[in-house]
Design a protein that fits this description.
Blueprint (H helix, E strand, L loop, with lengths): L3 H8 L4 H11 L11 H17 L4 H17 L15 E6 L2 E8 L2 E4 L2 E3 L2 H9 L5 H4 L9
Antiparallel strand pairs: 1-2, 2-3, 3-4
Helix pairs in contact: 1-3, 2-3
Length: about 150
């Protein structure tokens, strides 16, 4: 079997029919959702290949994601667990005003656009130009948490 980087690079050259066949091979027993684009299939296949090689989500993390998906389906919004902690290496992603902003959690602080910050609020203010709560801006808290 070719190295993972070659497998991932090869996905971009596959036809939609070949992508669907590869998805079915990797997801035996699961139903392929109709209407997925080639880009969506590539991401799903890439995830599965990496998961097989490097390991998947831990059982508690998978349960938390299932809980959040059910809550989103039921309520149309998410209530994050209050004991959620940010681990170094995690990334926070926020789509705001047609742009995507990514922040990396460090052992002490955060990295945004090549600079280190001690708080998310500093980053939220830089992005918005207004006095936003950083945790709220990045979806870690909502009004009901106050």
């Amino acid at each position: 079997m070719p190295p993972i980087d070659k497998q991932l690079a090869g996905l971009a050259t596959m036809s939609p029919a070949r992508l669907r066949a590869e998805w079915r091979r990797l997801h035996r027993g699961q139903t392929l959702t109709a209407g997925l684009t080639s880009s969506q299939l590539i991401r799903s296949i890439a995830w599965r290949l990496q998961e097989k090689m490097l390991g998947g989500l831990s059982a508690p993390r998978a349960r938390e994601l299932d809980r959040l998906a059910e809550q989103l389906d039921r309520d149309g919004e998410l209530q994050m667990a209050s004991d959620q902690s940010l681990k170094a290496g995690s990334q926070l992603i926020r789509h705001w005003h047609s742009r995507i902003y990514t922040v990396t959690v460090l052992d002490r602080g955060f990295e945004f656009e090549g600079q280190q910050y001690s708080s998310l609020t500093q980053i939220a203010r830089q992005v918005t130009g207004a006095a936003w709560s950083g945790p709220r801006f990045f979806g870690l808290k909502n009004r009901r948490d106050r």
